[in-house]
Amino acid sequence: MAKKWIRKAIKRPGALTRKAKAAGMATMAFARKMRHAKGITGKQARLALTLRGLPRPSKAARVRGGKKAAATRKRRR
């Protein structure tokens, strides 16, 4: 499996949010409503729901490249 598949999967960042705002709905409510739709909107909605279910990385991994980078920074100080 590709290392950074999420970046490759998101073709138009923020597009689903803009569509939800135009419909007057919250993003996740819009995704739940459109998950069975055909086309690009349906794909975006299904991906949003999939990403919502994934566990979030640790704070160290989100800040600067992962646990290894965090450990390196601590040792250098």
Pick out its properties:
77 residues; mainly alpha
Alpha plus pi helix count: 6
Q: What's the number of domains?
A: 1
* SS-based class: mainly alpha
Give the low-confidence spans: none
**How much helix is in the residues?**
55-70%
Q: Biggest β-sheet: count, sense, barrel?
A: none
What is the H-and-E element order?
HHHHHH
On the 0 to 100 scale, the average pLDDT is 83
Give the termini distance in whole angstroms. 36 Å
What is the β-strand count?
0
Radius of gyration: 17 Å
Q: How large is the share of residues in beta strands?
A: under 5%
Shape estimate: globular
Layout of helices and strands:
Elements: H1 5-9, H2 15-22, H3 27-34, H4 39-53, H5 59-64, H6 67-76
